Amino acid sequence: MGYATCFVCGQENDKGLHIHFHKDGENGVRASFLAEPWHEGWPGIQHGGVTSAILDEATAYVTFFMGVVAVTAQLQVEFQDPIRVGERVEIEAHPTKVTRRIVEVDASIRGTDGALKARSHAKMMILSQQQKEEMGLANLP
Ligand SMILES: CCCCCCCCCC(=O)SCCNC(=O)CCNC(=O)[C@H](O)C(C)(C)COP(=O)(O)OP(=O)(O)OC[C@H]1O[C@@H](n2cnc3c(N)ncnc32)[C@H](O)[C@@H]1OP(=O)(O)O
């Protein structure tokens, strides 16, 4: 599922996060992740850019499972509590509004105890055929 070379989900990306996202209910997605030492910014704490990339990817998977090709136009992230190296977290995302061109998505990352670590609100722009061609994405489903 997804794309083999993707930084977040690609199983063939040696430098990637290798997160497996799966469908949850009709429109939601879920995944799990373990922060490793090479994901840290401040000592012992997962880098906020890694956290943002995970939220962005969960958001993108919502549109992927909807069967449209979309890119992130806006991603607003709240970092609520540090994600510690060695800590497992649970990721969730679901759509909140769907229009002809834009899918709005809420995503969150929680500890295994359910405590909120980070959350995001994003606007995904559905690409026209011309935009897909210009971005080299015309052959995607
Ligand atoms: C699932 C498997 C794995 C898949 C890979 C995971 C990927 C993860 C997701 C990503 O990270 S994608 C990469 C990061 N995103 C980008 O690189 C997108 C870069 N931005 C663009 O390509 C264009 O800005 C975009 C396609 C989003 C919009 O260009 P358009 O030419 O379609 O917009 P247009 O100029 O026609 O404007 C249409 C409306 O949208 C508005 N708009 C455009 N860009 C916007 C923006 N960025 N934010 C908010 N609004 C925006 C614009 O003001 C306007 O509003 P109005 O209709 O009210 O006039």
Summarize the SSE layout with pairings.
Elements: E1 22-24, E2 28-34, H1 48-66, E3 70-79, E4 88-98, E5 102-111, E6 116-126, H2 129-134
Antiparallel strand pairs: 1-2, 2-4, 3-6, 4-5, 5-6
Bound molecules: decanoyl-CoA.
Enzyme class: hydrolase
Pfam families: 4HBT (PF03061)
EC number: 3.1.2.2
Characteristic terms for this protein:
6 strands; alpha+beta; Thiol Ester Dehydrase, Chain A; cell projection; Acyl-coenzyme A thioesterase THEM4; hydrolase; 6-stranded antiparallel beta sheet; globular; binds decanoyl-CoA; fatty acid metabolism; apoptosis
Briefly, what is this?
The chain has helices at residues 48-66, 129-134; strands at 22-24, 28-34, 70-79, 88-98, 102-111, 116-126.
Overall average pLDDT? 96
Tally of structural domains: 1
Oligomer classification? single chain
Helix content: 10-25%
Bound molecules: decanoyl-CoA
CATH superfamily: Hotdog Thioesterase
Strand content: 35-45%
CA-atom Rg in angstroms: 15 Å
Number of strands: 6
For the sheet with most strands, the description reads:
6 strands, antiparallel
Shape: globular
CATH topology: Thiol Ester Dehydrase, Chain A
The secondary-structure element order is: EEHEEEEH
CATH class category label: Alpha Beta
Uncertain runs: none
For the biggest β-sheet, the strand order reads 1-2-4-5-6-3
CATH architecture term: Roll
Q: How would you describe the overall organization of this protein?
A:
By secondary structure, the chain is α+β, with helices and mostly antiparallel strands. The protein has a single domain, classed as Roll (Thiol Ester Dehydrase, Chain A), CATH 3.10.129. The chain is 18% helix and 37% strand. It has two helices and six strands. It has helices at 48-66, 129-134, and strands spanning 22-24, 28-34, 70-79, 88-98, 102-111, 116-126. The chain has a six-stranded antiparallel sheet, covered by helices on one side. Strand 5 and strand 6 (116-126) form a beta hairpin. It is globular and about 45 Å long. The mean pLDDT is 96.
